Amino acid sequence: MITLYIDTTKRETVTVRLEIDGKKYQKTVDNTQAQEVLPLIEKLLKEKKIKFNQINRIKVNTGPGSFTGVRVGVSIANALSFALKIPVNNKKIGEYVEALYNKV
């Protein structure tokens, strides 16, 4: 089981983590911008010799935190979920967006 974890809630840092069969591998970038999230994910995947289609699920921190940061993380998670046909935060494709709107 391979899980991608995305945390963009803090203004100062972005954290991306892979959990591969219970082992955690993490990358954090300080003073980051939204456009650095996907390259950070790609870098971590390359280091662990994992391809996007090997990811089984995605977890994203939905806050509290920076509104823009949360939006960036959720958008990336949803786009990857849709492309890879895998769940985000244990919700099937489409269910997560509905759950997020109900939270507001």
What do these coordinates show?
With about 100 residues, the chain is an alpha+beta fold. The protein has one domain (about 1-104): Nucleotidyltransferase, domain 5 (2-Layer Sandwich). Helices cover about 35% and strands about 25% of the residues. It contains three helices and four strands. It has helices spanning about 35-45, 65-85, 95-104, and strands spanning about 1-5, 15-20, 25-30, 55-60. The chain has a four-stranded mixed beta sheet, covered by helices on one side. Strand 2 and strand 3 form a beta hairpin. The protein starts with a strand and ends with a helix.
Biggest β-sheet: strands ordered side by side in the sheet: 3-2-1-4
CATH C-level category: Alpha Beta
Distance between the termini: 31 Å
CATH architecture tag: 2-Layer Sandwich
Q: What percentage of residues falls in helices of 4 or more residues?
A: 25-40%
Order of helices and strands: EEEHEHH
The fourth-level CATH homologous superfamily is: ATPase, nucleotide binding domain
Helix/strand-derived category reads alpha+beta
- In round numbers, the mean pLDDT is 88
CATH overall fold name = Nucleotidyltransferase, domain 5
Q: Let me know the number of strands.
A: 4
Query: What is the count of DSSP helices, taking H or I runs of 4+ residues?
Result: 3
Shape estimate: globular
* Strand composition percent: 25-35%
* Major β-sheet profile: 4 strands, mixed
Low-confidence stretches: none
How many domains? The number is 1
Radius of gyration from CA coordinates: 13 Å
Salient structural properties:
104 residues; alpha+beta; Nucleotidyltransferase, domain 5; 4-stranded mixed sheet; 3 helices
